[in-house]
Amino acid sequence: MAAGQALPARFRRQRVLIVGCGDVGQRVLRLWQRPGQHAHAARGPLVRALSSSPQRFDSLRALGATPLLGNLDEPRSLRRLAGLAQRVVHLAPPAQPAAGTPPTLASRDLRTRHLLQALACRAGQVPQLVYGSTSGVYGNWDGAWVTETHPLRASTARALRRVDAERQLRAWARRLVASGAAVHVLRIPGIYAGDREGGTPLGRLQRGTPLLRREDDVYTSHIHADDLARAVVRALWRGMPQRITNVADDSAMLMGDYFDLAADLWRLPHPMRISLAEAEQQLSPTLLSFMRESRRLSNTRMRQELGLVLRYQTVHHGLQAAVYLVGAGTAAGPGA
Question: Which of 37, 81, 109, 253 is least surrounded by Cβ atoms within 10 Å, i.e. has the fewest?
């Protein structure tokens, strides 16, 4: 190529890899591509999506991504990832450990370890990375407002695996900072949307799952799936390196108030309220774990540093849209 001659467009576009291209990853793709548009005709980045299911390849191509076959549980399948992308979106959850796994091993995220090993295999070509973590790493704060600088109090194995992933990612970025490595962690609360499987409270309302009485109730935070996808894109291009950002809407609601609001919007009876002691006898350990943690997420950093303007400022706005989309009395999935 002659000196000064511009590179072809396909070489000027940023190369992005999405790992864990489920509901939120697909919403990210829709922000860049129009469904059915050929990837090379798009104006967004050149996107590859890692998937362990060849059956999903056609749907990923329809969204403008080039699918790659790989499995985070099988490190050998990840060898092609080194140097493949300049930016990586890591939305894959840790694997659920087998029954009987020792607690020290059950709290580790081997999938993130395998991914980072693959990405660092080629010297001088280390990408910038955005990781979708969970606000569960904060644990219980008795309803207090929680910022990104609060200490972590994770108590469940589920949350401890996310803590392990965050620590791996930040250590990886510090070790390879000279090669351009950078990590931005998004801490995400409950995700909801009318067009997301299990993305509304409707399923639990229809099943009549009880809630805690007000004196035992806990504060929870939420984010609409579309706003989360927009936050991922913002963090990918504008996020500060080695930074953590809470991604939450402006709601500050008790869990029971959230479900009562949904019941009113869907014109269903309010769930029965029970004490925490009764809940311990009636509800599953997983559901109970959410009822033992109370916190309200501050989203100041999300607004000021990522510059994200929410489309659904509160769950009232988002659930109203979900009622319109899903329809009264029809669940989009098993429910949150």
Answer: 37
List the structure tokens of 51. 């998937």
Q: Taking the CB of residue 11, how many other CB atoms lie within 10 A of it?
A: 10
| Long-range contacts, 101-106 (Cβ 8 Å, 24+) | 103/157, 106/157, 106/160, 106/161
Task: Kindly state the tokens that stand for 123.
Answer: 């010297």
Q: Which of 245, 307, 235 is nearest to 87 (CA)?
A: 235
Q: What is this structure's pTM?
A: 0.91
User: Residue 221: which residues within 8 A CB-CB, separation 6 or more?
Assistant: 135, 189, 190, 248, 249, 251, 252, 295, 296, 297
DSSP 12-34: HSPEEEEES-SHHHHHHHHHHS-
The β-bridge relationship of strands 219-220 and 253-254 is antiparallel
Query: pLDDT (tens digit, 9 = 90+) per residue, 3-28?
Result: 445 544 555 689 999 999 999 999 99
User: Cα–Cα distance between 244 and 281 in angstroms, integer?
Assistant: 37
Contact 194, 321 (CB under 8 A): yes
Half-sphere exposure of 83 (CA within 13 A, CB side): 7
